[in-house]
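anyone else get weird line breaks when pasting these?? whatever heres mine. first is seq + tokens for prot A
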Amino acid sequence: MCDETDGGAVSRALDKDNKDEMFLGRHKIFQPEFDPHNDDSFEHIFPPDSYNMRTFPRGKLIIINIEEFSYHSGYYASPRKGTNRDCETLVNMFLDFGFIVEVFKDISTKELIKVMKRISHDHFQPISTLFMAFLTHGLEKNLYMTDGPIEIRKITDYMKGSNLAGKPKVMIIQACQGVNYMDTLETDGPSSPSKREISFPAEADFLYAYSTAYGFYSWRNGETGSWFIQALCKVFTKHAHTMDVVRMLTRVNAEVCQQVSYTNDPDTSGKKQATSTVSQLRKELYIFPPVS
């Protein structure tokens, strides 16, 4: 099956009287099956200046998986084939990492806001980190739910409350960030227990892992999944026991940069992709899965 992009120019709905299609989010919670009390990894010596990840569950992963779109969104004719493969791969990996995983499938912008409002009030003290994965179409600073776009900043604003203060918050974004194709560039050779209050900047402790650079398309295959998510799961599965997340994302970029698009169209075949990582972390972030 040929590669497809996860965004681009959006056609506008012509029938303005047509009501938005509403899709009910299908909510599923997965719980790890092993016993944390028999888990020797809690004795793991974390490196200095790294986030405390000794809790069990290690953290929570929330996946927003958008495959089908309403007519009004402009992406009705562009379902995201292969996204369920990405979702399944992420679920299986993060369960092995000792995370709680929640999956929301084909939800609207209003339903996403309900999810984010719940997050803003949830009690996160028993876990160490929050990961969110968005598998959808995108355009520059926006992500598309079934009925239309929502700004990334509007999403992250719900994650800046005191319940997540000081905890690492990781955004994994599989979506286009523009309408430009990335060409190939040829080269000639290889290349503490204190009780006192602590304040944090509201924008601190965020890590954004984008599937592509700003302004460019992001590629996905209808059978094998997206280049980025599949590379991320490959690298994290191999190195999460020894390597911090930012360093792993550099290796993910190396994996993605090896890919080349195949579309049966000379204008879009032979295109490349480079990921983008924006770190506002204050410390190194290690997952250190509780199982080998």
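and prot B, same format (seq, then tokens)
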Amino acid sequence: MNDGIKYGKGLFETIKVVDCKPVYLEDHIERLENSMNFLGMNTKNIRENIKAEIENIDLDTDCLRIMVLDNNGDYDLFINTRNTDYSNQKYTKGLKLKVLNQLRDKNNPLVYHKTNNYLLNDYLHKELLKEGFDEGIFLNQDGNVTEGTYTNLFFIQENTFITPPVADGMLPGIFRKKLIEFLKINGYNIIEKSIKLSDLQSMDCCFATNSLMEMRFVRQIDEIMFSKSNLFCEISEKLMNEY
């Protein structure tokens, strides 16, 4: 029994599929490859093998999942597809978030990689759904906002986009990276800085991002309510037009 099974030593990527084409595929493979190097896994021919397998998969879907498991330093590759439910009404009217009691440890090196050690995130997300929430927010040991169980977070304050820095303890999302690049290229104010829980009261708008749902408006974090600002709507429309 190898370390991929015994310890969950492996990684995965979930990739949006539009018109039978994986979106930001090269970025996802690059992150996967970097994380494999971090875990000491052989990356020989990983790009070629992924692309070869994708060629033989029916991509009439909206999500592609790539997983690698450690096999004595080498890797076993698994690729499958599934359909998501991000288009339903709750994502249109806005997400309801809850601040979690569990802390995100910024000193844990694994939080910066999309490892198969995702059981806590999955468990907490399912518990949140039972409570009537859509997502949760992790704080780190300094009391700074980090990320959700499956999303990165952005805020808008007086026409400035603000997102927590990766160093506060989070997975550097692919869509997060692309959105930051998009905002900078198009002349919007975007800063990465630590955000205290008390800072949320002064934010005009909040939205969550990941590669599958892209950017979704957050209407509420605990008792704090947010408005869907014109700037959020403007950026959403511009990104949709880019596709």
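btw re prot B: The longest strand covers residues 95-104. The chain has a mean pLDDT of 94.
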